[in-house]
Amino acid sequence: MTTDTVTGSDYGNLVRTHLTRVEQHNAAALDDVAELVLAAVQADGMILTAGAGHSLAAVAETFYRAGGLACVRPIYHPELLPMHGAISSTAAERRSGLAGEVLREAGLAPHDVLFVFSTSGVNHYPVELAQEAAGAGCPVVAVTSVTASAQAPRRAGATLAEVATVVLDNLVPPGDSTYPEQAPVTAAVSTLATTFLWNLLMVRLVDKATETGVQLPLWRSANVEGGDAANADLLRHYQTRIPQLG
């Protein structure tokens, strides 16, 4: 067996073990979040999803995705995307006040649900998103790492987990890297763990909707026969409230 094969196998086992822990740890919280989301769908509310830096990968996963919810509105500001400026995106996430600007533009209602993706959960932008939404009576789901937050500088005076309605913990270690196991320097696991949590939520949501007879607004792939036609009604219903669908 080659060294490369062993390395690949070791890393694969690390990831599989981590995802198993994530699923087991969040079982009860996922049920609670599925209930919140289902109630928002029944009230014709919106699921707002937000993040900064590499957490924007999670926001992209929630939006206009085959099999995903059509009632998702991504909360986004160009300054927060590393591809628009890596150093400036870090500065923007740490700047107080940006969250309020972004949420005022998006609008919030008590029958909406805000998801905030931030593994460190300590910078002004994610924490203030949660605080602003909570103040407006909107439930907040934090997708974060409680352990990483506990060891990071408390730049915003609180952590995302402390101000959220429900916490989904991706169990990411401080620094995010996972390999090699004894002294990790690479292979960040936050994107994998967070995407896994989102899909675990979608599975629960579909099951609960089936049990209660609720019709979920789910996108079809535009690259399968009939996909465009199936999505047309959803686009008509949500496009005025979700400008990113334009």
From TrEMBL:
<dbReference type="Pfam" id="PF13580">
    <property type="entry name" value="SIS_2"/>
</dbReference>
<dbReference type="InterPro" id="IPR035472">
    <property type="entry name" value="RpiR-like_SIS"/>
</dbReference>
<dbReference type="InterPro" id="IPR001347">
    <property type="entry name" value="SIS_dom"/>
</dbReference>
<dbReference type="GO" id="GO:1901135">
    <property type="term" value="P:carbohydrate derivative metabolic process"/>
</dbReference>
<protein>
    <submittedName>
        <fullName>Phosphosugar-binding protein</fullName>
    </submittedName>
</protein>
<feature type="domain" description="SIS">
    <location>
        <begin position="33"/>
        <end position="211"/>
    </location>
</feature>
<dbReference type="InterPro" id="IPR046348">
    <property type="entry name" value="SIS_dom_sf"/>
</dbReference>
<dbReference type="GO" id="GO:0097367">
    <property type="term" value="F:carbohydrate derivative binding"/>
</dbReference>
<dbReference type="InterPro" id="IPR050099">
    <property type="entry name" value="SIS_GmhA/DiaA_subfam"/>
</dbReference>
